[in-house]
Specification:
Length: 197
C-alpha cells in the first residue's frame, strides 16, 4: 500500500508544499528559511525513516511564527492523509530518547482525537533564528491537523538545542512505531471499530 501524501497550502503569510512517504528510508529535502528548523525536520525524517520534502516561503521579515506553525499544520495534514484508513497499524507509539544530558519521552496515539500536552521549558528564547516558544506551536499544530494525541515529558532538561533535537527525534521514533503494521490487528485497533473521533 502506498502511504504517501502531497499537501500544498498557500496563504498571504506562507506558501508551503510538503511531500511525505511513511515507508521511506529517511531522505530529506528541506527548505524553510530557518536553518535550525531545517535541521530538526531533517532529523525527524532520518530517525523516523520517512522520506520528506518541505518547501516553505514565509513572512520571515515579520518573525518565524507563521512559517513554523503553518509548516506544522501542513505536515500534520500530510501525515494524516498518508496513514490512510489506519487498518492494521499499531496506533500507539512511544520513545524515551537520550540526547546528551537531556532525556525526553514522547508518546502518541493516532486516535482521531487531537490533544497536545508538553512540559518542556527551554532555558533560552532562541536557537539560531528559531524562537523556542515555536517548538510548542509546531507540535500543537501537528497534533491537531493529524488528529493525534501527542505528549512530551522532559524527564531531564538541559541545553535548548539538545532538548529540541530530542523532541523531534523522539517524535519521529514514536510516529514510526505507531504507523507500523501488526499482523494480529484485524481492521483498526479500537473496540469502537473506528479511529476517526
Amino acid at each position: 500500500m502506498d502511504r504517501t501524501a502531497r499537501i500544498v497550502r498557500n496563504t498571504r503569510e506562507t506558501q508551503i508544499c510538503v511531500n511525505i512517504n511513511l515507508d521511506g528510508t529517511g531522505t530529506a529535502k528541506i527548505q524553510t528559511g530557518i536553518g535550525f528548523f531545517d535541521h530538526m525536520l531533517e532529523g525527524f525524517a532520518k530517525h523516523g525513516f520517512f522520506d520528506l520534502e518541505v518547501e516553505v516561503s514565509g513572512d520571515l521579515h515579520v518573525d518565524c511564527h507563521h512559517t513554523v506553525e503553518d509548516t506544522g499544520i501542513v505536515l500534520g495534514e500530510a501525515i494524516r492523509q498518508a496513514i490512510g484508513d489506519k487498518k492494521g497499524i499499531r496506533r500507539y507509539g512511544e520513545c524515551t530518547l537520550p540526547m546528551d544530558e537531556v532525556l525526553v519521552l514522547c508518546a502518541l496515539d493516532l486516535s482521531g482525537r487531537p490533544v497536545f500536552c508538553s512540559d518542556a521549558r527551554f532555558p533560552t528564547e532562541r536557537i539560531g533564528s528559531l524562537d523556542t516558544e515555536m517548538i510548542r506551536e509546531f507540535f500543537y499544530a501537528i497534533s491537531y491537523s493529524a488528529a493525534m494525541n501527542l505528549h512530551f515529558c522532559m524527564l531531564r532538561d538541559g541545553n535548548s538545542h539538545h532538548m529540541a533535537e530530542g523532541m523531534f527525534k523522539a517524535f519521529a521514533k514514536a510516529l514510526d512505531q505507531a504507523c507500523g503494521y501488526d499482523a494480529r490487528i484485524a481492521g483498526v485497533l479500537s473496540t469502537k471499530g473506528t479511529l476517526e473521533s
